[in-house]
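Input chain follows. Return structure tokens only.
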Amino acid sequence: MATRVKQAIGEIDVVAFTTAIDKVQGTGKWPAGTEGTVVSDYGDHKEVEISDNRGVALDFPVVPVEQLKLVEKHSLH
């Protein structure tokens, strides 16, 4: 039986929000499932760049790692 190892999320990894995210309290500016790229790693929080389909940055929320799901691994750790 194979053991599944949870990979650490690092800079340049693509992630998805597992819950709605808002930088200010409210109903959530970015819905669960929104994808972005980790641009800064603060240990238990990650700064995520959210871009439009042309690559223009729309937002940079800092999100607890518990609210992120790894979509594509690009970092070395």
